[in-house]
Specification:
Distance between the termini: 71 Å
Number of helices: 19
Bound molecules: flavin-adenine dinucleotide
Helix content: 25-40%
Radius of gyration: 27 Å
Shape: globular
Structural class: alpha+beta
Largest sheet: 8 strands, mixed
Length: 802
């Protein structure tokens, strides 16, 4: 072992070893992996080794598919057997809704390139896995991209392959502390100090403790988890070859073949946490005694689904710990303010995700960019609030208990809520608001006219849609107001602000008093944001973006180093306000504003600081609904007063509070995209249509070369607005768009356009399929669809500019 390396990876579990290997693949071999004990000594050694490609986030699912595809490669390269058993897997549906959902999942899998997944009847499921009792089963989904392997073999295969490529691995050497000295890390270890440029925290059960060494509190927590392995089961022993794994979605269990017996794992409804600060340093290869009382309800269901388990002995129990984050996905990537530190932790499904994490992180460390849309596992997707004990406990327990529970698209989950509320929360409650949550913040979805109204969870169109329709009608006919607290706001000030922003943003910087929409690009020409820039004064700018991207954006801003004469402040929680739009919005705002807000004095895309009601506001002439509209932003302390004043001013003009669902319907009628749906890290300006805001003639901005290249060759796909011949449901993100049996696109979002009276969706469609007859799969059913030749609502934007 040398005393200096470029990169030190802390932790020799499946994740650390995969990161080390992927760094080596990218040519980065001045690397050292330090393991406290022996490789696999954390969660890895006792894992069941199961893997699958399914994930609610399609981009994470693609990384899982990559993980699975890597096992034969790394086995061949290392010569170390990984014990791969590509058995395929069955997901059982025990309710009619779940059965419908499985067909949707099949459509999603096909849209993600899993051509060979298919639906089977209960009888076929029993033929494949003869120990299933099919009582109450509607059917199952079979996905061949599932199986299991030997966790130790797979970890060692990565380690051997990395070592063969030049990486160093040292076991029995615990990292004791991390100090930043002269722009490098001093890594204090049991075997002596090491310096390095980068450290990777792949510390698994100890990752929270390692993060705290550098002042970071990662939102992850260890939880115990049970599985049992049976003695031989004759019906299993009789199967010549592999037996598919089984996930019983109503039973909270998973089952896989283990020798001539089976392994049954349980996700119980009342999980518990263990050592929320991380495992003790001296925690060895230790299992907990089984906690039968706690898991008995799920165990009973498991024994009913697989009755033969009542007759065979249990060879061994495993009750071991692994880590959970609030949404169950890992924490990967760099952390703002801690240069040279990289997270690769919080990994709940290391054998489904290990190589995907390694790939994204190695790209990120070598190129400064993960190379894929990794937001679903980006450490920056959570705010500091997520690491607070109560929130972390509540959300991780919810995730654990719902691991196999079906999530409805309109379902609101209660854990850790309400956490962040705006000053209007109580007023909104009183007005009937039903809330969703955005990055911990309660956001009105719609305002129910009666306390008794109960929204039913559904895969189809919700029974709240008539309320949404009324809110849409209010905006199109008179006026609607919605809270814009869920926008992130950054204030950029200083003599060098314009020059710095000019390089950061792809659009031209607006003159004082004007607003502009602007893409922000990464070096490879892909989107890093769809921001609104408002120039309030010569050297005072506001950038507005999505609320949940605050840590992500701030990290990017700092990466592009604002010079000493530029200050960038996140003012999201300090300023908030309302968007008022609709034909009557001017009349309402005029009653409150001290200045003239008529079109001549304050045209579309104007911005100005002015008194509104009793507050010093910043007013922008902009709207997402496609109507004449104003955004009124005030200091948070005056937010509630402004709401009251707005209600009063709008009383005679038909003003109605509206929520997110109405905004979605309204924006789709205008074909407007939003971040995380139409605009993502994987998209380019050309394909998303945001190229119309790019100032290609600017001399220098991040991503310019790549954007110019794209403009020359033309994008390979296009964001289009679809009218869908839908029945009782609208399209959703990642629903496949097909031309016959050819997958030609993916939907990005869908909603019912209540004013137009049609189901709408935005989708990326391949350029060569733009004239084809298209079908989109909605809740698993094919629906005819057509690309709308022009924006169906106010195509020329006369209402916006009125
Ligand atoms: C019962 C059970 C069954 C499971 N089944 C599956 C399954 O079927 N499929 C699946 O995908 N996942 C499964 N998992 C989860 C899986 O085990 C984890 O996702 C995976 O092991 C996480 O790997 P890791 O490398 O992130 O962490 P770990 O395996 O915990 O590795 C972290 C390593 O870091 C080392 N370390 C920590 N601190 C230091 C330090 N200061 N200095 C040096 N080294 C340090 C530790 O010793 C450890 O070896 C299961 C988990 C449990 C508990």
């Amino acid at each position: 072992m040398k005393d200096r390396y470029e990169i030190v990876v802390i932790g020799g579990g499946i994740v650390g070893c995969s990161v080390l290997y992927h760094l080596a693949l990218r040519g980065s071999t001045d690397t050292l992996l330090l393991e406290r004990e022996e490789l696999t000594a954390g969660s890895t050694w006792h894992a069941a080794g199961g893997f699958h490609a399914i994930n609610a986030d399609a981009r994470v699912a693609a990384l899982q598919q990559y993980t699975i595809s890597m096992y034969p490669t790394v086995e061949a390269e290392s010569g170390q057997p990984v014990g791969l058993k590509m058995s395929g897997g069955l997901e059982l549906a025990g309710t009619e809704e779940r059965w419908r959902w499985l067909r949707q999942e099949l459509a999603w899998l096909r849209a993600q390139g899993h051509d060979d997944a298919y639906i089977v009847s209960p009888e076929q499921a029993v033929e494949m896995v003869p120990i299933i009792d099919p009582t109450g089963i509607y059917g199952a989904l079979f996905d061949p991209e599932e199986g299991n392997l030997d966790p130790n073999g797979a970890t060692r295969a990565y380690a051997v392959a990395a070592r063969n490529r030049g990486a160093t691995i040292v076991e029995h050497d615990r990292v004791l502390s991390l100090e930043r000295e002269n722009g490098e890390w001093r890594v204090e270890t049991e075997q002596g100090p090491i310096t390095c440029e980068h450290v990777v925290n792949a510390g698994g059960l100890w990752a929270r403790r390692i993060g705290r060494m550098v002042g970071i509190d990662h939102p992850l927590v260890p939880m115990p988890h049970h599985y049992l392995v049976t003695d031989d089961v004759p019906a299993v022993a009789a199967i010549d070859g592999l037996m598919p794994a089984v996930t019983d979605l109503e039973g909270f269990t998973y089952l896989q073949r283990e020798g001539n017996g089976v392994l049954l794992g349980l996700y119980e409804q009342h999980p518990r946490h263990w050592e929320v600060d991380g495992a003790p340093w001296d925690f060895g290869r230790t299992l907990f005694p089984e906690e039968l009382d706690r898991i008995m309800p799920e165990l009973t269901i498991g024994f009913q689904r697989f009755p033969v388990l009542q007759e065979v002995g249990i060879r061994r129990w495993v009750n071991g710990a692994f880590t959970f984050t609030p949404d169950g996905n890992p924490l990967v990537g760099p952390v703002d303010g801690v240069p040279g530190y990289w997270a690769a932790c919080g990994v709940m499904a290391g054998f489904s995700q290990g190589a995907g994490i390694g790939l994204a992180l190695a790209n990120w460390m070598v190129d400064g960019d993960p190379g894929v849309d990794a937001f679903g596992m980006d450490v920056a997707r959570f705010g500091d609030f997520a690491s607070e004990d109560a929130y972390l406990r509540a959300t991780t327990a919810q995730f654990y208990a719902r691991r196999f529970v079906m999530a409805y698209p309109n379902e609101e989950l209660p854990a850790g809520r309400p956490l962040k509320t705006t000053p209007c929360y109580d007023d909104f409650l009183e007005a009937g608001a039903r809330f969703t949550v955005n990055h911990g913040l309660e956001v009105p979805l719609y305002f129910a006219p009666s306390e008794d109204f109960v929204e039913q969870d559904t895969l189809g169109r919700s029974n709240a849609e008539p309320i949404v329709a009324e809110e849409v009608a209010a905006v199109r006919g008179a006026a609607g107001a919605y809270e814009i607290a869920q926008y992130a706001r950054y204030e950029v000030t200083g003599a060098g602000a314009e020059a710095w922003l000019d390089r950061l943003l792809a659009a031209r910087i607006p003159p004082v008093g004007r607003i502009r929409l602007t893409p922000m690009l990464g070096p490879a020409g892909r989107l890093m944001g769809d921001l609104t820039i408002a120039r309030i004064d010569e050297d005072r700018f506001w950038l507005t973006g999505s609320y949940y991207l605050q840590a992500w954006h701030m990290r990017w801003f700092h990466q592009l180093g604002p010079p000493a004469d530029v200050a960038v402040r996140n003012i999201t929680d300090d300023w908030m306000g309302f968007s008022v739009s609709g034909p009557a919005s001017r009349e309402i705002v005029a009653k409150l504003a001290r200045e003239d807000v008529a079109n001549e004095a304050f045209p579309f895309l104007s911005v100005r600081a002015m008194t509104v009601g009793s507050a010093q506001a910043v007013v922008g002439r902009i709207s997402l609904t496609g109507e004449l509209g104003y955004e009124l932003v005030v200091p948070t302390s005056q937010h509630r007063a402004l709401w009251a004043e707005l209600q009063e001013a709008g009383a005679g003009a038909g003003l109605r509070p509206i929520g997110d669902r109405a905004v979605d319907s309204l924006r789709l009628e205008k074909g407007y995209g939003i971040w995380s749906a139409e605009f993502r890290q994987e998209n380019t300006p050309g394909e998303s249509g945001l190229d119309r805001f790019v100032a290609f003639d600017k001399q220098d901005f991040v991503g310019r070369e790549a954007a110019l290249r794209e403009r020359e060759r033309g994008p390979s796909r296009r964001l289009v607005l679809l009218a869908v011949d839908a029945a009782d449901a609208d399209a959703a993100q990642d629903d496949g768009v097909w031309a016959g049996d050819r997958l030609v696109g993916l939907a990005t979002s869908g909603a019912y356009g209540h004013h137009l009276g049609r189901s709408l969706a935005l989708a990326y469609v391949d350029r060569d399929a733009l004239d084809a007859d298209l079908t989109v799969f909605v809740v698993g059913e094919p629906r005819a669809t057509e690309i709308l030749p022009e924006i169906p609502y106010d195509p020329t934007g006369t209402k916006l500019r009125a």
